[in-house]
Design a protein that fits this description.
This protein is of the alpha+beta class. It has 4 domains: 167 residues, GAF domain (Beta-Lactamase); 103 residues, Beta-Lactamase, CATH 3.30.450.20; 71 residues; 146 residues, Histidine kinase-like ATPase, C-terminal domain (Heat Shock Protein 90), CATH 3.30.565. The protein contains 13 helices and 18 strands. Strands 3-2-1-6-5-4 form a 6-stranded antiparallel sheet, sandwiched between helices. A hairpin with a 5-residue loop joins β10 and β11. α9 packs antiparallel against α10 and α12 runs antiparallel to α13. The radius of gyration is 39 Å and the shape is elongated.
Length: 530
């Protein structure tokens, strides 16, 4: 609702006041050091002087309530927080019009019975809606108990509109900064409380910031690390390059699994760190840098190495007496026909248990070799179609002996080539297929196939599924399936840890979907030869 009187040109003195107001607003807008609260108060003073009115208010309007946020007056101004019913203020007309509204002499206007005039006697008023982040947030308004001798001019309307647009944007920036400050404070608190080292680096791998745990773990102050290459934290240039290449391959394949990396303390002491790293991208897709979270795994790595060494030593020591035992049992078997039936049964039981002990010893040695980072083997290009065909042949008899069929899903001329160790990859496929056969019911079927659209293969059974409690520890060593999971056979508890170790050595990824009573499908993804 505009002023009901005809707009008239401003006298020269009023015109000069508006020009001065715009100049002051320009100076105010240029000063980035002034807080929003002070900008709001200065704007109200500038507006009162330019419009020759005694009271200026910035309000917040919510749920029918008009609340004073900032105010300025020649005499007493309503304090911030003072609230009124919106219907009792002239601003209700401003919000209804969604534009500048003004009254220069309310007593002679169509709103002379308005509650605001009846309660406060405000004769002149000009106001504009304030939009913050796309919605009406409140109003900017100026008023006086004295009537003006002329209507507000177009130039005064434009000035009020300009004031409203500027303070709305400043309010948006203030709210955004407050929210950013809140998030920054929270993030700093989280980083300070984290027991793990957190390192943020630029796209060129230059350290930008670290948390206090990084200073403790590596023995450097944050100021000594900032600006240096992340290679300063590694035990060697080779370890730095290897970690970078492995992380790049993980990101490229869409995975983000932790790596064990060798770092070095300022004193020269070796640190083994379990490292999670991810690239940090802006909303526009540009690379901001990299974030790494490092957990000190030195003691755990040492204990793992000691455990592996002890297990490996024990397994090697078992091989000689085990070979002798199996030889003796084979010799006794030559005379089995002369033995009583009970003795024959005991001989069969002993032979079967010696076979299981030999399989367990071999599995322990395999697991130890695969977990070693020093395993050096020749790699070659391997066809996954060829791999699955060989796997089906190798497991065919075992499946037939247990009334299960193994079939390969139609490959439709599709094939993937990976660079790896053929024997290891075949062991990976055979282990998965063998477990699937064990899990299958009589007359069941195990299917093998290539992944669609990404390099890898899958193995599916229709057994009882993997129990929920086993799933988080499925790839841990000596994790054995419950008796109800396999129809027969059981295992040493090392098969899936060997599977996981082979996948990791080929920089791949393994996952599964399992439904109780319906079966399990394992998915193996491997880097494809480009």
């Amino acid at each position: 609702m505009k002023d009901i009187s005809l707009n008239r040109p401003l006298p020269a003195s009023d015109d000069a006041r508006i020009d001065e107001a715009l100049r002051q607003l320009f100076v105010l807008a240029l000063d980035a050091e002034i807080l929003f609260e002070e900008k709001a108060r200065r704007l109200l003073r500038i507006g009162c002087e330019a419009l020759n009115l005694s009271l200026g208010i910035i309000s917040v309007v919510t749920e029918g309530r008009y609340v004073v946020r900032y105010s300025h007056a020649l005499e007493a101004a309503p304090a911030p927080g003072t609230a009124f019913d919106l219907s009792g203020t002239y601003c209700v007309h401003t919000l209804q019009a969604d534009d500048v509204t003004a009254f220069h002499h309310v007593a002679k206007s169509e709103i002379r019975t308005h509650p605001c005039y009846q309660d406060f006697g405000l004769e002149s008023y000009i106001g504009v809606p304030l939009r913050v982040n796309g919605r009406v947030h409140g109003t900017l308004n100026f008023s006086s108990s004295a009537a003006l001798n002329r209507p507000f001019s177009d130039k005064e309307y434009d000035l009020a509109r300009h004031f409203g647009q500027w303070i709305s944007k400043e309010w948006e920036h203030s709210e955004a900064k407050r929210e950013l400050d809140k998030k920054t404070t929270l993030l700093e608190a989280i980083l300070s409380a984290m027991p793990d080292a957190v390192v943020f680096a630029s796209p060129e791998r230059e350290i930008i910031s670290v948390n206090p745990a990084t200073e403790t773990m590596f023995g450097y102050s944050a100021s000594n690390l900032t600006g240096r290459q992340t290679s300063a934290l590694y035990s060697s240039l080779a370890a730095y390059q290897e970690a970078g290449e492995k992380a790049y391959n993980e990101w490229k394949s869409g995975k983000n699994e932790p790596m064990l990396v060798e770092y070095m303390h300022q004193s020269g002491r070796m640190i083994v760190g379990e490292t999670h790293s991810i690239p940090m991208d802006a909303h526009d897709g540009s690379r901001m840098g990299y974030l790494a979270v490092i957990r000190d795994a030195t003691q755990r790595s040492k204990l793992d190495a000691e455990r592996d060494n002890a297990i490996s030593t024990a397994s090697h020591e078992l091989k000689t007496p085990l070979t002798s035992l199996k030889g003796a049992l084979r010799l006794l078997d030559l005379y089995a026909a002369d033995l009583p039936s009970d003795a024959k049964q005991l001989l069969k039981t002993a032979a079967r248990n010696s076979d299981r002990l030999e399989a367990l010893t071999r599995a322990i040695l395999d697991a130890g070799k695969l977990s070693s980072q020093q395993t050096n083997v020749d790699r070659e290009d391997v066809s996954l179609t060829f791999l699955l065909n060989v796997c089906a042949i190798d497991t065919k008899q075992f499946a037939a002996d247990n009334n299960v069929t193994v079939s390969i899903s139609s490959l439709a001329q599709m094939d993937y080539i990976v660079h790896g160790v053929e024997a290891m990859l075949l062991q990976l496929a055979v282990n998965l297929a063998t477990n699937a056969i064990k899990a299958s019911p009589k007359g069941g079927q195990v299917d093998l196939g290539l992944l669609d659209g990404r390099c890898g293969f899958w193995v599916r059974d229709r057994g009882k599924g993997i129990p929920e409690k086993m799933r988080p520890v499925l790839y841990d060593r000596f994790t054995k399936a419950s008796e109800s999971s396999y129809r027969f056979g059981g295992g040493t508890g090392l098969g899936m840890s060997i599977v996981k170790a082979i996948v990791d050595q080929h920089h791949g990824h393994i996952s599964f979907k399992s439904e109780i009573g319906a079966g399990t499908t394992f998915y193996v993804e491997l880097p494809e030869v480009e």
